[in-house]
Amino acid sequence: MKKGEIYEGVIEKVEFPNKGYINIDGEKVIVKNGIPGQKVRFMINKKRSGRVEGRLLEVLEKSPLEVREPVCNIFPACGGCMYQTMSYEEQLKMKENQVKSLLQAAVGEDVDLHWEGIHGSPIEFGYRNKMEFSFGDEFKDGPLSLGLHKKGSTYDVLTASDCKLVHPDMTAILSCVLDFFTELGAVHYKKMQHTGYLRHLLLRRGVTSGEILVHVITTSQAQYDYAPLVSRLLALPLEGKIVGIMHIINDSLSDVVQSDETQILYGQDYFYETLLGLRFKISTFSFFQPNSLAAEVLYSIVRDYIGDTKDKEVFDLYSGTGTIAQLLASVAKEVIGVEIVEEAVEAAKVNAALNGLTNCRFIAGDVLKALDDLTEKPDMIVLDPPRDGIHPKALPKILAYGVENIVYISCKPTSLARDLPSFLAAGYQIQRTCSVDQFCETVHCETVVLLSQQKPDDTIEIDLDLDELDATSAELKATYQEIKDYVLKEFGLKVSSLYISQVKRKCGIEVGENYNLPKSENARVPQCPKEKEEAIKAALEYFAMI
Ligand SMILES: C[S@@+](CC[C@H](N)C(=O)[O-])C[C@H]1O[C@@H](n2cnc3c(N)ncnc32)[C@H](O)[C@@H]1O
Q1: Which of 88, 324, 412, 535 sits 20 to 30 Å CA-CA off 65?
Q2: How much is the pTM?
Q3: pLDDT band, residue 477 (cuts 50/70/90)
Q4: Are residues 292 and 425 in the same domain?
């Protein structure tokens, strides 16, 4: 196979996030952006140390997984919603398998992920509360466009007048803004030349409140009267309500949305959203989970995984606007949030006051440095780092606290897969894992892991000669290992000796006196889940022990 050669083949599997594999005469080629089962034409574009990569040129035949018609008019050129022709159920199945196998490969086959499945978003479309659209043109010197970049292109922008990831209010605003500047003959910003005016349209819309913020981001290279735009926007027949219109000037070379100067043209520069009964004030640049309803699912899982925070000191690292901290604060002794964006920290403080919480503290700073200055010691830690995961130098500082329970929320499974082995090496065990799909139709997926380690004073006294000890019991018919093997073979479940002893005791079978009893009175002993209990009981029945 040589660079530039064109082949046809069927995508056999897709690894997270979008790495498809095609077998051509025994040679594996990685082709991104496809769906398993699609027959595609591709061109070899990279060959490096035995790895061959191809660029997808055309889908020749649909995959059997593609059971519906595209839902928007810029598919597949946009590439944002690669999975939109699959049913949502199939999307979830695929993401679940991808995340599971990625994590399993990272920690080793013998480590139980205690996988609990994937949770879908409560709504499949119109779920985004924030969207950044770019100004540009669809082809060189074409008419002004406003929307999303063409897949693989930094320049060509497709007008997203029909995007199904956002509420129709947002597409109505997009069309209004595009019409306004097209009529004026305003030109879009060109990155390479650093000339032009229009850069981005940033929209935020509270899913629960319907409150909308509109931000037009431009350079300072032209001047227009925005009053007619404000009138036109306010006259739109929307389901929600525009509460603020901003003009942001950004003359930086970097293409990210940021502000050199912000002018409020109408209303205010914040809106409110309510999650799990708490109210949050969100401003232009504060991080907030982009799918509010799925964030409620995510946060409920975090609350469940972290367990009882009563009278505990909790660290919420990478705290954003302090949502998690506030959800855990009601019973905790104190929650300390650490967040690098000062604006988000200020918003977190305002939000905590808004929600009547006095036991949350928010510190602006890099987790890497801020931990050095904190004198408090946490009892439990929640980690929700950005896509790159935890800084390698911050990880040992986090592990050094030696807390019993850590909940790690990850928006990029490959970063989680990189970080997990360090937790295991430090003595943590994976207690629970699941995924939450915040980004329907796209390749992305959120994952939550509960990592636990037993503190010395919670040590469970286990007689290592358990099987021999039990062998003296009249009721014994099978060893612990035989029960484990039976449960794994018949139910596909791994069970510990601890769980077996708990079930045996429940069934009135005598086990070693000290077995399964914690040393200290207030120690936490993991309890056998219902599903495993049933499987162990079946084994006990099989071995005629009950
Ligand atoms: C995935 S968000 C999580 C926010 C929050 N937990 C939530 O659910 O809304 C990650 C956050 O980490 C912040 N961040 C990124 N790098 C950081 C660092 N080195 N130290 C502290 N915060 C950081 C980002 O600004 C962002 O708010």
Answers
A1: 412
A2: 0.81
A3: low
A4: yes
